[in-house]
Amino acid sequence: MVRLPLSAAELDRGRRLGAVLRETRGARTMLDVALAAGISPETLRKIESGRIATPSFQTVAAIAGAVGLSLDKLWAEVEASTLA
Question: Where are the alpha helices (DSSP H) in 26-84?
């Protein structure tokens, strides 16, 4: 299967998602959050930096749960940063 390149809008949304998750993580270490979410610290680092612009729903849900952020609130914050 060939994956099409991501659009500029998808890349931007991935960067916003990563920024919101990073901000919400606060003082917790990347390792603590990654372990709580059941992912590798490297995966979390790539998501927070926007290098993985389209992480799976399960991964996003796991990270959001690990940092105590509802998916509704997460989406609202990602979308709000579009307007800012």
Answer: 30-37, 41-49, 57-66, 71-83
